[in-house]
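Hi X.,

You mentioned you wanted examples for the new student's onboarding notes, showing what a folding record looks like when two proteins sit in one file. Here is a clean example. The first protein comes first, with its sequence line followed by its C-alpha cells.
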Amino acid sequence: MRRTMWTGTIWLVGLAALAGCHHHGDRRHGTYRGPAADRPFPLGQVSDAHWETQQTNAEAADFIFYDHEFRYDTKARVDTAELTPGGKKHLMQVALRLEHVPFPVVIEQSPNNSRPELDEARRRTVVEQLARLGVPNAEERVIVAGAFPEGYTGIEAENAYYNIFSGAFGGGMGRRFGGTGGFYR
C-alpha cells in the first residue's frame, strides 16, 4: 500500500510538471500568467499621476502676480498698479512662456475683494505690458482671482523665520545639517 501511494505521488508531480503548473519559475523569469487583477503595477505608475499634478500646479503658480510685485507709494501711503523691478522681471518671464502654456495670468485679488478698482487697474497694467511685448490675446488671458497658494499670517511667518536660527530642523546656521551647533562638521 505504501508503494502504491508513493507511485501515485510521483505520477501527480509528473503530471503537474507536464501541465505547466510552475508559477514560481515564471515570476523569476519576468513573466506572470495569473489573473490580471493580481499583476503588480509598473514601478512608479501609481505615484506618477500625483507628481505630475503637483508639477502642473506649481507651473500654473508661476503665472500669478502677487500684491508685493506692485509698487507701494510711500508718500501717498497707497498701493499702486505700477510694477516693481521684480514684478517687471516676472512679467518678462511670463511673456516668454505664455504662448507655450494653457494657464491664465492671475492678478492676486485684494483681501476680501476690498479694492476692485485697484485690482482692475493692476490687471490693465499687466495686459498693456504683455500686449506691448507682443503677446497675442493678452486681454483674455489675464484675470483677477485669489492666489492659489495660501499665504502666512504674520505670526506664522515670524515663527518660520526664527525656526531657521533656533535649530528646529537640525540646528543653527551653516553647512549641511547645522554648522553652528549642528552635528555634521
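Then the second protein repeats the pattern, sequence line and then C-alpha cells:
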Amino acid sequence: MTMKIGIDARMYGAGFTGIGRYTAELIEHLARLDDRNEYVLFMRKEAFDAFECPNDSFRKVLADFSHYSMGEQWGFYRVLEAEKLDFMHFTHFNAPLLYKRPFVVTIHDLTLSFFPGKKMNRWYHRMAYHKVIKRVTSQAKHIIAVSENTKKDLINTLKVSEAKISVIHNGISPQFGGIKATSKETLMKTHGFSKPFFLYTGVWRDHKNVVGLIKAFSAFNASQNHAYELVITGKPNATYQEVPDVISELGVGEWVHLVGLVSEEDLYGLYQHALAYTFPSFYEGFGLPPLEAMQCGTPVLASNTSAIPEVCGEGNALFFDPYDVEDMQAKMKHIATDAVLRKTLIERGGERVKAFSWEKMTKAVLEVYSEFSA
C-alpha cells in the first residue's frame, strides 16, 4: 500500500544543527531505501529554493513558518491540512496544536524542560512550550526517541506510555571527516594557537557547560605550566556573554581561543589534530560530536550524565562529573599525560562508531512508518 507521508523539514539546511542534520540524512536515506511511498517535504524558503527533490517520489512544499510562532500554529496547520496526508512525521516537537490527522514525532531531548536557558523564557513562552510538547507527545500515534535516556525522560517527565516509544539512535556518516582536512600548521597559523589543544565544538548555552569547561581547563593548564590550549568553535552568542567574560576574568585569553564558525575543512582538521575532544554538557538527548571525534581518530573526554555514556559506550571515552570542576581538571590531566590511554580510546572509539549509521536509523524509521499501512 502506497502512503502519502509528510516530513517537517523546516530545519533542513539550518546550518545543519543536530535536528537539521537528522532531517537531511533521513530524507537522503529514504530516497535510497523506499521506492513505495510518496513523500511531501515541508520547507522554509531558503531551503525550498535550493533543494532538489531526489526522485519523483518526493515533492517539496513551501512552509515558511518559524518554530515557536503563531504562523506555525495557524499557517503551517492550513498547509498541512491541504495535503491530506496519510500521516505526518514531525522531526521536532513543534507542531500545530489543531492538527488532528495521524502523526509520528521524533523527540531529540527535553532540554527546555530541564534547562530553559535565556531565550524565550518568559512565563508565556514556558506555558506555550509545555502545552505544545505535552499535546504532541500525548496525541502522537508513535514517538521516536533518539536515546534510551530521552525515552526515560518522556516517561518520567511527560508520563508518556512506554508502549508508544521506539528508541532509534542517530547515525554518523562513514564519510564524516573524509574530505581533505586543513593541516595542523595552517590551523595554528589561521586561528592563533601553537600548542597541543583540547577541542570543544557547539553552541554556547547553559546546558552545554562551556563556562565549567573553561574553568577546569584554566586550573589544569596552570598546573602544567600552560603547556596546552583550548579551542572553542561556534557562533558567538551575546546572550551567553559568560563565555568571553570568564576568559577575561581568569586571564586565559592567551590559551583559550574562540574561533567562531569554521569551514568544514577546518572543522575536520580541528577534530583530527586535537589532543582530545571535550564534551562537558550537563544534559544531552543524544550527543553527536563525541562520535564525530571518534570517527576522526580523536580520544574523547565527556560528561557522565544524561545520554552521553549511552552513546559513547563504556570504556570508549574518559568520563567526568560535569558539576565537579576538579574532576574535569583531573581527567584533562589524565588524558593529556597518558599516551597509552589516548591510543586505547582512539582504537575503541573507532570501533564504537561502527554501531551508528544513518541507514540503520532510516530502516528503523521505516518500520515505524509501516505500522500506519497495517
